[in-house]
Design a protein that fits this description.
α3 crosses α4 and α5 packs parallel to α8. By secondary structure, the chain is an alpha/beta fold. It has 2 domains: about 170 residues, 3-Layer(aba) Sandwich (Rossmann fold), CATH 3.40.50.620; about 120 residues, Rossmann fold. It contains 8 helices and 16 strands. Bound molecules: flavin-adenine dinucleotide.
């Protein structure tokens, strides 16, 4: 085992994910603690992606055009090969749909200690991981020993800008390891944009379970109309049928980055944060001052969302004359 930090670069539809850059920023800090280097594994991917990974000291490429789409079997084997070749101390993977597949596969196959839901990592004599559990209601610290280990990290745990550096990094190629070919990629099904495309809005009034019941959704709709915004929601509202699926923000919904994201009665679970954390301005209203959404909001208000909605709608309507 060396002292290097390996980041798994994640991409979909030809674009590297924000998570990749968040992990690279985190890896650089960890590498300064371990005295090692930052290495990125680019499985599939192209030269444009490679040129965006300048924050890594070295990029190990597996496959290029040979691996066009995500396949847990192929990516798992490729990642095993990178880890066997580079012997990193810590492997960082995003806690995403792809990362969930890869981190557990790697932990078992390469016999690595593992922690998930990470929001912070310190690498001294031991690797100590802080994980956020129960939708952000509890933080747990795990000592993974000296390593080697694999840690899957929640989206939004570090600034993506810290891991963005253009310019071609040093790179080397590894051959794609053979696999049994039991899993085949068929097609990517994108969520439909529907009545209103919430990904294209400048302002979103987003509501969560704090809204209480279906009839009260109209309170948020009135505010949205006054503001010229659209209504979006957290998953429980969509599961309950209070809003259509096309309005869901988050891991299993749509990713949005409006100029204003007004989060009303949303607790800030990691799966929700993943979908809205890159909004330019986030304002959260919640009756619970400990709600995790306040860790991500630029402005927060401990208040009843109904009071805020009513007053804000009135003020906006008045201003419009
Ligand atoms: C694999 C997976 C995928 C998921 N995908 C998604 C996803 O895409 N999107 C998503 O949102 N979730 C997703 N989830 C669910 C996620 O874990 C949370 O359960 C969900 O985000 C919680 O929604 P919420 O914040 O509306 O509800 P809660 O967590 O119940 O929070 C409600 C909040 O409202 C506050 N509140 C109550 N009354 C008021 C009031 N009158 N005024 C102001 N505040 C009030 C409470 O203090 C609380 O903080 C996923 C979960 C899993 C396991």
């Amino acid at each position: 085992m060396g002292n290097d930090i390996l980041v798994v670069a994640e991409h979909l539809g030809g674009t590297l994910s924000d998570t990749t850059f968040e992990l690279l920023g985190m890896a650089k800090k960890l590498a300064s603690q371990t005295g090692g280097s930052t290495v990125a594994a680019l499985i599939g991917g192209d030269d444009t992606m490679l040129s965006q990974l300048g924050a890594a000291d070295l990029v190990v490429r597996v496959g290029g055009g040979e691996i066009a789409d995500f396949n847990p079997e192929v990516h798992g084997a490729a990642l095993e090969a990178v880890v066997a070749a580079k012997q990193p101390r810590i492997v960082l993977i995003g806690y995403t749909s792809m990362g969930m597949d890869l981190a557990s596969h790697l932990a078992v196959k390469a016999d690595l200690a593992a922690a998930s839901f990470a929001i912070g990592i310190e690498a001294g004599d031991s690797v100590v991981v802080t994980s956020q559990l129960y939708g952000g209601k509890m933080n747990v610290t795990t000592d993974l020993g000296s390593g080697p280990c694999v840690v899957s990290v929640l989206a939004g745990s570090a600034p993506a800008d810290d891991g963005r550096a253009h310019g071609p990094p040093a790179s080397e190629d590894l051959a794609v390891p053979p696999t049994a070919g039991k899993i085949r990629f068929r097609r990517l099904i994108e969520p439909e944009a529907g009545d209103v495309d919430i990904t294209a809005q400048d302002m979103l009034v987003a509501i969560g379970r704090g809204i209480g019941n279906k009839d009260d959704v109209e309170v948020a709709e009135a505010l949205a109309e006054a503001l010229g915004a659209a209504v979006a929601g957290s998953r429980p509202l969509i599961d309950a049928g209070w809003l259509p699926k096309t309005r869901q923000v988050g891991k299993s919904g749509l990713k949005v980055s409006p100029k204003l994201y007004l989060a009303l009665g949303i607790s800030g679970a990691p799966e929700h944060i993943e979908g809205m954390k890159s909004s330019s301005t986030i304002i959260a209203v919640n009756t619970d001052k400990h709600a995790p959404i306040f860790n991500f909001a630029h402005y927060g208000m401990v208040a009843d969302l109904f009071d805020v909605c009513e007053e804000l709608t009135e003020i906006v309507e008045e201003k419009k004359g």
